Amino acid sequence: MMDRMSSHFEFDGQVYRFKFGVDDEPASRACASECGFFIPDDEDEQIDDTPISCYNCMNRRWLADGMECTNEPQLWLVKV
User: Fold this and answer.
1) pLDDT band at 13 (very low <50, low <70, confident <90, very high)
2) Euclidean distance between CA atoms 80 and 60, whole angstroms
């Protein structure tokens, strides 16, 4: 397995923030499809029409100006 999820997130000193904001569904879907720890959130919490999306993940937390992933960075592994 390779560490690749960090290409989608950056540490801002406090949280691991999704680099593509809250309106980039293609990037969110690509990231989630590579994540071995994607867990779908409750249906009423999902905002993307495509089920496998970081925007629909239980590990996602909304911020005032973006989104963070609550998984530890060493867990960001690509399925191979």
Assistant:
1) confident
2) 23
